[in-house]
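Lab channel / #folding
Pinned by the channel admin:
"Please post every new chain as: sequence first, then the structure tokens as a reply. Keep commentary short and put observations after the output so the thread stays searchable."

First post following the new format, from NK:
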Amino acid sequence: MTKAYQCIHCGMIEYSGETPKNVDCKMAALHQWHQIAIMGTSIYECSRCFAKVKAEKLPNFPSCPEGGEHSWHHLGEIGPNRFECRRCNDIVMTDKYPQDSPCPLKGPHAWEKV
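Reply from TO:
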């Protein structure tokens, strides 16, 4: 079973059947991985650190690299359609227009099909 892991230092997301190796973290000497979800077909984005996770349900690890707890927003289901935010240039591949969620440049993402 593939799981999603996030480094508590740099926020990187890795998908693996086992805990990823603890080397080459850009924010600390070693990654400190925490399992946050089981990989699935839904896309979630945290409005604090802006990490995106493919998960079968709402990620369950609360600690966010930006401090405090993650604030997860469901963007949609993985699909063939490419959407880009006109404000921050974030890109997601979903089955239909992504749901509203906070943009790193303040306010909501402004999704456009590309």
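NK: Residues 3-113 form one domain.
TO: also worth noting, The beta strands are 3-7, 13-16, 33-38, 42-46, 52-55, 72-85, 91-94, 111-113.
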